[in-house]
Amino acid sequence: MKRKKLNKFFIYLILVIFVLIINLPLISMVGTSLKAEDEVLSTSNLFPTKISWVNYQTVLGKTPFLTYIKNSLIITISVTIFSTMLAVLAGYALSRFTHKIRVFGLYSRLLIVLQMFPIILLLIPLFIIFKSIGILNTRLPAILIYITITLPFSIWLMTGFFDGIPVELEEAGTIDGCSQFQSFYLLVLPVSSPGVAAIAIFSFIFCWNEYLLASIFLKQDNLRTLPIGLQTFIQQYTSAWGSLMAASTLTIIPTIIFLIFMQKYIIQGLTAGAVKG
């Protein structure tokens, strides 16, 4: 019994060491953000000798960081909601009606082609179109482009999830008096919540971290998102490393909170279809 506990202890110890090694850049980032500016430049220790909040005070009080995070939240949440809703409806239609409507089969194949198409080839045409319709200096171009980019993969993923759900589940709902939409909403959607959570996480993380398109279509300072805002801490000749690490630490907090929140729905979806034998 003691040997079994000892083996278990060493296994957990090895796992903890691996976790610390993998998260070393993250630990270094948080530690550097808590150092004073002179200590950032003079030492290479992971942790500060004395905790200082000056970098966070600088980021939150002397830079437009809150504006950047507001823009990122507005764009990311909008894209995540619309992309998830459209992907769920389209994925269900492709899964259930492809055998009835042949065009759906062709469309599902085109989704893979769209996913492989490099968006960088469309930057100039998109820029001209958005400028001609007068929405260039707004958040709308980024929202529309992000939805377009995330939809093909999200639809393809949701189609696979719905294909794995037996049609008999909906037939049972129909026998009980449910309409097609009620069967979808009350029976199919709860079981497919792991897929819904997966595409929501994919959309959220993509929009939160995207840099190239944001740097082109969100040039005004009051429209910039966090990836563009973080670049402002790096200048040509000097870099505010302490402030940059503090801003980076604050940037990852919403993502961690979102993942923790969505994890609950993934677990619920995995257990929703469990049947006691």
Summarize the structure.
The chain is mainly alpha-helical. The protein has a domain at 71-222: MetI-like fold (Orthogonal Bundle), CATH 1.10.3720. The protein has 14 helices and no strands.
Walk me through the structure:
With 277 residues, the chain is mostly helical. It has helices at residues 2-22, 24-33, 37-42, 54-62, 65-97, 102-116, 123-132, 140-163, 167-175, 180-191, 193-209, 212-217, 226-231, 241-272. The protein has a domain at 71-222: MetI-like (MetI-like fold, Orthogonal Bundle). It is flat and about 70 Å long. Mean pLDDT is 84; it is low at 272-277.
Give the helices and strands, then pairings.
Elements: H1 2-22, H2 24-33, H3 37-42, H4 54-62, H5 65-97, H6 102-116, H7 123-132, H8 140-163, H9 167-175, H10 180-191, H11 193-209, H12 212-217, H13 226-231, H14 241-272
Helix pairs in contact: 2-14, 4-14, 5-8, 5-11, 6-8, 8-11, 9-10, 11-14
Q: Tell me about the biggest sheet? A: none
User: What is the beta-strand fraction?
Assistant: under 5%
The CATH topology of the domain at 71-222 is MetI-like fold
Fraction of residues in helix: over 70%
Spans of at least 5 consecutive residues with low confidence: 272-277
CATH class of the domain at 71-222: Mainly Alpha
Which CATH architecture of the domain at 71-222?
Orthogonal Bundle
List keywords for this structure.
single chain, 277 residues, mainly alpha
